[in-house]
Amino acid sequence: MEYRWPKTMTGQEPKLLFGGDYNPDQWPEDIWEEDVRLMKKAKVNVVTVAVFAWANLEPEDGVYTFEWLDRVLDKLYEGGIAVDLATATATPPRWLTSAHPEILPRNKQGEVLWPGSRQQWRPTSEVFRRYALRLAEKMAERYKNHPALVSWHVSNELGCHNRFDYSDDAALGFQKWLKKRYGTLEALNDSWNGAFWSQKVTDWSQIIPPRESMCGCNPTTLLDFKRFSSDALLEYYEAEAELLHRITPDVPVTTNLMIIENQTNPVDCFKWGRHLDFVSNDHYYLPDERHLDEMTMSAAITDGVADKNPWFLMENSTSSVNWRPINLRKQPGEIIRDALVHVANGADAVCFFQWRQSRAGAEKFHSSLLPHAGEDSRLFREVCELGNALTALKPVLKSRVEQAKIAMVYDYDSWWSWENGLLTQLFDYRAEFYHWYRAALDAGVAADVVRKEDAWESYETVMFPVTILADAEISEKARHYVEQGGQLIVTYGSGIMDSREHVYLGGYPGAFRELLGVRVEEFVAIDENDKIELDNGWSGQMWADDITGVSEDCEVVSRILPSASDRALRGQAIVTRRSYGKGSAWYIGTKLDRSSAEQLFRERILKTDAVPDGKEAHLLSGEVARGENTPLRIRRVKDGQCFEFIFNRCAEQAVEVPVAGHPLYLLMAEAGEDRVVLEPSGAAVYLCGQ
Fold it and tell me: Which of 240, 294, 315, 334 is catalytic?
């Protein structure tokens, strides 16, 4: 898909976009004028309209009431506020689910999931699609020439609630998808190892979704069903997008992905990103010590999904949400700091759910740009300051995130495979990836995130964190990369199986074994209250590989001390490095703890331990800012200009950071001649030369 950014309204200059979901149909019309006034005060310049408005746009089958939306779009345009117009198909109205209950999804037990919430529709339902496309077509025809329309927003958070449907429609869709993937039943049975547990399939009609069964399910069936479910939703998105492109060819189309820590069973966002005119994402912060680092990682993944084209933060929150067990609010400055994290990682739009906080309904206590307390509130004043900040950062527009020294491979197939829980219940793919991403942050580097199929040969270092699935082509690609001078890092739990979940025989890590020069006979689970100590002062946890073979040209970087509770591991090599061609290949056979992982990156992988005098960042106590206190620095570049974003990762102390150039924006920070002091939650953006 060709990259296309939301249009600029006639008479306006391009700018960083700022705003949020706007639901005027949930409010009396006399409030709309006040909304526009306050949006202008906060420098809001774009809103997403009509996400959940189907029942108000089509209150009866074939009866349309667009007049209220006409007036809303006219008022927004008069106020200079652009519209990202949703197709309103996220949730069908009650008249539709009553007339056609066959569109309702079913769970693994075969039970109908009834209306009363949202997204109560089957991705494979032709009946639902017919009604949804009819509404989308009516909207496109009516608003194709409206001057406020700058982009289309298909549905909303596709797959957030209805990704897995186990209905008969889903069964037929799954059969069709499998026929296309495998071609023959012989190939299917080979992939699924149908001989095991007598699961051989002799007719396509015998295939059903992985519904609740006596004793688990074939893992490759589960993996394929996850792939199919992602593709089924993508096919639905493309049906709406094709219609919109046909009627409004000059208006770009997107939908909001959910690249976020607490999102389970996601769609394959890397695959989806190639079907969107521009990538947009929803992200909600974690209210604990991971807040800044996890947000940085998710934004870096989004930047990778967008192929480093500018992207759109469609939703985040100004403060607390309403769906966690304990809904902690953001601290002063964090609305702006968090927005800057996304901009640093490539976002040219920062939007929130939602504009005006609801006074009733399921999300009435979810924070918004305009809170229940109204205009005279700390939160709204900070929202206005964010509008000022994004205005000051206009020069950043259309720049791209500078390529990092290191790329980390993020693999949805491996994530879905790990979810089958066949090795250890302590394992969580997203948490493991975050562990290694944060280790690089602790060492002073914000890594890029790529697919294993992407072109990553231009990176100095490429890391495969817990990438359990790797085909022969990826193995050969990795070998060539190292041979040509690259530095490859492979961790425990990688390369064990191919994309069919067939284990490579002869020893782990299968796909990478020959390149790495190590042979693992077994992987050893470590109790969550235990750890292994290594001979260079490092320690490991959760997992240890029983490495029984190390090639003569491998450097053993660390070994397990004799104190290990598993006697067979005592003295074993656990971290190795092998020179190969012009490059080198590392193997990390255990989950190094945070401090050890940071040392590995800083001292051995990135070799950033030695810093010239006066160039180190210091906490105001005088201590060098290392590890979890290392400042975060990310650069965006364009046309010979460089914009450096700097963040204090220390939650309790100010940090003094050396800088060059001049500041574009300071948040809870004080600039000196060649240094800037950042308070906790502080940030700075500098314009500097490349």
Answer: 315
Orientation of helix 67-78 relative to helix 32-42, angle to 10°: 30
Sheet-wide strand order for 554-559: 448-450, 406-409, 461-464, 487-491, 583-588, 573-580, 554-559
What per-residue confidence (pLDDT) applies to 261? Answer: 80
**Region of residue 325 (left: phi > 0; alpha: psi -120 to 50; beta: else):** alpha
Residue 562 burial (10 A CB sphere; 0-12, 13-18, 19+): exposed
Enter the tokens of residue 585: 């290949």
* Burial of 143 (C-beta count, 10 Å sphere; 0-12/13-18/19+): buried
Contact 641, 395 (CB under 8 A): yes
DSSP-derived secondary structure letter, 509:
T
How many angstroms separate the CA atoms of 667 and 46, rounded?
24
What's the residue count for the chain? 690
Q: For residue 527, what are the contacts with CB-CB under 8 A and spacing of at least 6? A: none
| pLDDT-derived band at 607, boundaries 50, 70, 90 | confident
User: How far apart (Å, rounded) are the C-alpha atoms in residues 420 and 197?
Assistant: 17
Answer yes or no: is pLDDT of 99 > 60.
yes
Residue 555 three-state SS: strand
Fill in the DSSP letter of residue 648.
Answer: -
Q: What is the pLDDT of residue 517?
A: 98
Q: With a cut of 90, say whether residue 208 has pLDDT above it.
A: yes
Beta bridge partner(s), residue 645:
634, 685
Residues pairing with 409 in the sheet: 450
The pLDDT tens digits for 363-416 are 999 999 999 999 999 999 999 999 999 999 999 999 999 999 999 999 999 999
Q: Check residues 606 and 361 and name the one with the higher pLDDT.
A: 361
Strand partners, 351: 19
The whole-angstrom separation of Cα 115 and Cα 109 is: 17
- Known active-site residue 157: yes
Helical pair 32-42 and 378-392, crossing angle rounded to 10 deg: 50
User: Active-site residue among 58, 157, 432, 656?
Assistant: 157
- Read off the DSSP letter of residue 313: E
Q: Are 260 and 430 in contact (CB under 8 A)?
A: no
603 is catalytic: no
Residue 613 has pLDDT above 60, yes or no: no
Q: Please give the single-letter amino acid code of residue 120.
A: Q
Q: Look up residue 185 and give its two tokens.
A: 């039943």
| Cα–Cα distance for residue pair 217/402, rounded to 1 Å | 44
Q: Quick one: pLDDT band at residue 425, thresholds 50, 70, 90?
A: confident
DSSP letter for each residue of 253-267: EE-EE---TT--S--
Q: Quick one: average pLDDT of 538-554? A: 96
Integer distance in angstroms from the first to the last C-alpha of the chain? Answer: 31
Nearest to 282, CA basis, from 387, 401, 155, 397? 155
485-509 burial, b if ≥16 CB within 10 A, otherwise e?
Answer: ebbbbbbbbbbbbbbbbeebeeebb
Give me 560's structure tokens: 């397990």
Q: What is the pTM of this model?
A: 0.97
Say whether pLDDT at 265 is over 90: no
Query: Measured between alpha carbons, how far is 275 from 269 in angstroms, rounded to an integer?
Result: 10
Query: What pLDDT does residue 263 have?
Result: 66
In this structure, what are the phi and psi dihedrals at residue 221, rounded to the nearest 5 degrees?
A: -60, -45
CB proximity list for 477: less than 8 A, separation 6 or greater: 452
Residue in this structure with the two tokens 């190292």, named with its chain if needed:
482
For residues 654 and 678, the answer to whether their CB atoms sit within 8 Å is yes
CB 18 within 8 A of CB 46: yes
